[in-house]
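User: Show me an example of a complex going from sequences to structure tokens.

Assistant: Sure. Here are the input components:
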Amino acid sequence: SQQGEEDPQALSIQEGENATMNCSYKTSINNLQWYRQNSGRGLVHLILIRSNEREKHSGRLRVTLDTSKKSSSLLITASRAADTASYFCATDAPNKLSFGAGTTVTVRA
Amino acid sequence: EAQVTQNPRYLITVTGKKLTVTCSQNMNHEYMSWYRQDPGLGLRQIYYSMNVEVTDKGDVPEGYKVSRKEKRNFPLILESPSPNQTSLYFCASSLLAPGNEQFFGPGTRLTVL
């Protein structure tokens, strides 16, 4: 069963703008991860945030985690055409990782 | 180069013809898993393996088998494929528990006619 759900399903922005997507999950977690997938290719790990962390940065990426609301957000600042991809959150459950359905981001030139 | 490889990358087959999709990793990872990806459903886990000879069902195991005889290899077996198994399949591995960063293979696009 899917643990995480991303919102929105799709997002279209202009190059240079920021993109924000959200992930909600149902049960307690140890950590939450975000992945990127370019058009049918394998997923690439972006960032991992632990349950005792509230915010984490990696380059142009900023992730927040609110365990009381069971939600996380991924912010991509100053977007580029190369950021066009699908983004997935993944939450850990005993012995497995559960992915949401993803947010498809299109960055227009 | 650290990587997860899958073969074949593309496969068209017919209902009932047994097939195997291979997965191999060169990072000495203990945890390996198989996912299928379908439009609107995201990734769903089929099977996972915590270590050699230790495998368990994921969320959608029906119609699939796996084995883990060596640490580096984790083949996915479809004994009698059916059209509803047409999907994009990914193998992934991580050092220890699944909560670690997962390394994904390039995917296998399977069509069952």
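The lines above are the inputs; the final block is the predicted structure for all two components together. The mean pLDDT of chain B is 95.
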